[in-house]
Structures are given as structure tokens and as C-alpha cells.
Specification:
It is a single chain. The protein is α/β, with parallel strands linked by helices and 445 residues long. It has 17 helices and six strands. The protein is elongated, with a radius of gyration of 30 Å.
Length: 445
């Protein structure tokens, strides 16, 4: 154990002292706020830009104009050909052409511009045109619009989780889905990135012959375990620094500039939901009031058992990382170059790639047979159990899954160690799956 500790400390300090680690750790928390700030700035810049729109209404149905305040609207008497010429002169951003329309089949409406307009831009004109045509059709059919509005009924079903003590807590499927997907993706990304670091580290030491000096005083299995544990600790260190930096930065911004992260998050989410509402309106789907919806979503987020979710995330993240890290180390010990490693990467990577592909299946039915089974298998549980956790998972399923994950890690460590002890001292020969099987069965090596 003392040798493993020595390898752990050496590998850990070597990783955290690298400039690449320091730069990635310090800059990453700054990149996301900067990126969000740039997007918000460009969005505001785009919204405040003046756009002159010419409308050629040959139908005569829109003589009262369009109630759109974002753009300068000019109802024109020119022909569409004359309007197109003005478009080429740069007089207008675009021309909306409304030909003579058949109310039962209103075809031929077109927008002309030099560049493709965005979805939101077109939506601002599509809604008023649709509403006007619907009003005209109701007048023609002698239908009272007020009665139609009274008939429309919005129905929403609130969901609640009932605890063992009978207490009810409001839940939200959308929030749980987003949270589950984020945790699954973080686990997937870090296992792949740091697993590759382990494989590269083993390969570098093997090709530079440093390993022959190290294994003269340290058992190969201890060397492998030390590397895997050290890289897991480096990943957790990076997580901890990121969380600390984000907290410090947001606190500093809040005190210096009066910036409220919670309000900013709500604002960004509200903008996204308003965009979704525009799409829903275009599709004729009624949506509930946006401010209330945003408030309800944040109430649900704050009601989640955050400490429990973070604790489980750390357990499954570490379990998955150690399991796959041992396999990546075994692959690195068996080959002499990255190119040779490619042939063994697919079997190692396939379960975790399959896991991230099945996240959508689990989100559709988190209590289904497939979701429960996959969250028990050690190779898929680190991602798919964390996908289920925000929905609420029975305690006995979590206990079985954790026990199987620990057992899976110990089995994988034993399996990888038998390959590592031989492969780390073997070089210059072509390695196949048959060779790996032979190394695995060798005794007294």
C-alpha cells in the first residue's frame, strides 16, 4: 500500500503542476460566463439593430398594418418587382409580399431579402398574418370569436413525490430530465478525458523505459492502481476548484456590479421559453404564462435534495472512473503506440458510448425494466443511474447498484492488473486479443 501511495502522490503532483492543467482549471470557469455574456450581447445588439421592412399587400386584407414595434414597417403601394429593386439598393432589409389570397388556401406569401432571416424574425410576421386570416374566416362563417376564446381550456397536471412519511413534494419531469442529462454527460466526458490521460501516461512511461526502473521497486499492479487513483483525484480536484471559482466569481460580480446570478439565470431561461412559446403559437399550441412557469421551475430546482444528489454523483463518478480507468491503463500497457491502442479502444469504450446513447431511452421511462436493469450493470450504471436519480429511485435499487459497481471495479482491477503486469514490460511485438488472453492466463509472472 505504501508503494501505491508513493505512485499516487507522484502521479497526482505531476498532473496538477502541469501548465495545461492550471490553465484549463482556471480558464474554464471564465469561459462559460464570457461565452454567455457574448451571446447575450450579440442578441441585444441584433435586437436593437434597425431593420426597415416593406410590405406589399396586394390582398388588401392588412390595410391596418402590422403591430410590430421591433422593426420599421412601411406599407407600400409599389409592385413587388419595384420593391425588389429597392431591396437591391439597400433601402430595405426585406420585402414581405402578400398576394391576393384565398382564405381557404392562403398560398403565395413570400419574404424577400439578401440573407436568410431567422426563425424568430419570420415568426413575428407569421403570427399576425395567421390571426388576421382566422378572424376573417370566422367573420365569413359567422362565428363569434369571444365564444371560441371561452371554449379554449388550458390543462396542466402537477406532479408530486410522496415520501415514506407521507409528505408530498412537488416535482417536475422537465427539470429532472435536464439535471439527469447534465450529470450523465459530465460523467461521460470526464471518464473519457481522464481515461485517455491514464492510457497516455502509461504509454509514455513504457516507451521511455522509465517504467523498468519503477517496477524494480514497485509491483506493476500497485503502479497501475496508483495511476488510476491519482487521475481520479485530479479530476475531483478540478471539479472542486471549478465549483469554488464559480462561487467566488459570481459572489464578486454580485457585490461589485449588483449582478444577481439567479436573476440572470431566470432571465436567460425566460428568453429561451419565450422562443419556445413563439414556436408553440405558430403550431397552434397554447402555452401557460411564462413568468409563472419560470418561477415554478426554479421552485422545483431549489426543492431538490441537492446534497444527496451531489453525494451520489461523486460516488458513481468515482466508481465509473476507477472501473474504466483500470481498463484504459491495461490498454496503455499492452501497446507501444497510440495507433496500436485504437484496436483495443472500441471494446473498452463501447459500454460507455452505449450508455450515453441510451440516456434518452431512460429519460422516457426512468422506472421501466430497461432503465432499472441498465442502472444495475456496473459498466452502464455510472451514467444511467445518475440519469434516474433526479426522478427518485427506491433505496434498495441504489444499494444493489452501488454494491455491484464496487464489485465490478474490483473485478475489472483484477482483470486489468493481470494484463498490466505482463504488458508493461513487453515491447516490440505485435499484440492481439489472443496475446492478451495468454498474458491473462500466465502464472507466476
Amino acid at each position: 500500500m505504501s508503494n501505491t501511495r508513493f505512485i499516487f502522490e507522484r502521479e497526482y503532483m505531476e498532473r496538477v503542476k502541469k501548465k495545461s492543467f492550471l490553465l484549463a482549471t482556471i480558464l474554464t470557469p471564465l469561459i462559460f460566463p464570457a461565452f454567455i455574456g457574448i451571446v447575450v450581447f450579440l442578441t441585444k445588439l441584433d435586437d436593437t439593430g434597425e431593420r426597415k421592412i416593406e410590405i406589399v399587400d396586394e390582398s388588401g386584407l392588412f390595410a391596418d398594418g402590422f403591430n410590430i414595434t421591433e422593426y420599421e414597417i412601411n406599407m407600400s403601394d409599389r409592385s413587388i418587382e419595384e420593391a425588389k429593386e429597392a431591396l437591391n439598393d439597400g433601402e430595405y432589409y426585406g420585402v414581405l409580399h402578400i398576394p391576393k389570397l384565398d382564405l381557404d388556401n392562403p398560398e403565395g406569401i413570400g419574404f424577400y431579402s439578401k440573407t436568410n432571416p431567422g426563425f424568430n424574425f419570420i415568426g413575428k410576421f407569421r403570427g399576425p398574418i395567421r390571426d388576421r386570416l382566422e378572424d376573417l374566416k370566422m367573420e365569413e362563417l359567422n362565428i363569434d370569436k369571444a365564444i371560441i376564446e371561452q371554449i379554449k381550456t388550458s390543462v396542466s397536471i402537477a406532479t408530486f413525490n410522496v415520501t415514506d412519511t407521507g409528505e408530498s413534494k412537488e416535482s417536475d419531469t422537465k427539470v429532472a430530465s435536464v439535471l439527469g442529462y447534465i450529470m450523465a454527460f459530465l460523467t461521460y466526458m470526464f471518464v473519457f478525458v481522464y481515461g485517455s490521460f491514464i492510457m497516455q501516461s502509461v504509454l509514455n512511461e513504457k516507451t521511455s523505459k522509465i517504467v523498468e526502473i519503477i517496477v524494480s521497486s514497485v509491483k506493476p499492479t500497485q503502479l497501475m492502481l496508483g495511476k488510476v487513483l491519482a487521475n481520479g483525484a485530479v479530476a475531483l480536484t478540478q471539479f472542486a476548484i471549478w465549483i469554488t471559482l464559480v462561487f467566488v466569481i459570481t459572489t464578486a460580480l454580485s457585490s461589485i456590479f449588483g449582478y444577481d446570478p439567479q436573476t440572470a439565470q431566470q432571465g436567460m431561461m425566460q428568453e429561451q421559453m419565450e422562443m419556445a412559446k413563439t414556436m408553440a403559437d405558430d403550431a397552434g399550441v397554447e402555452q401557460p404564462d411564462m413568468p409563472d412557469m419560470v418561477k415554478e421551475m426554479f421552485d422545483v430546482i431549489y426543492s431538490l435534495p441537492v446534497a444527496q444528489i451531489i453525494g451520489m454523483f461523486l460516488f458513481y463518478f468515482l466508481g465509473g472512473f476507477l472501473l474504466y480507468g483500470a481498463l484504459f491503463a491495461a490498454v496503455g500497457s499492452a501497446v507501444d503506440s497510440i495507433q496500436e491502442a485504437q484496436q483495443f479502444m472500441l471494446p473498452v469504450s463501447l459500454p460507455i458510448i452505449l450508455s450515453i446513447m441510451l440516456v434518452s431511452v431512460v429519460l422516457q421511462n426512468p422506472d421501466g425494466g430497461a432503465a432499472v436493469t441498465l442502472s444495475m450493470i456496473p459498466f452502464t450504471s455510472p451514467i444511467l443511474m445518475m440519469t434516474r436519480v433526479p426522478f427518485g429511485v427506491p433505496g434498495w435499487q441504489i444499494a444493489i447498484s452501488m454494491i455491484l459497481l464496487v464489485g465490478g471495479f474490483l473485478f475489472t482491477l483484477w482483470l486489468a492488473g493481470r494484463i498490466y503486469r505482463v504488458g508493461i514490460l513487453t515491447s516490440g511485438s505485435k499484440v492481439t486479443y489472443k496475446t492478451l488472453a495468454k498474458w491473462f492466463l500466465m502464472k507466476n509472472y
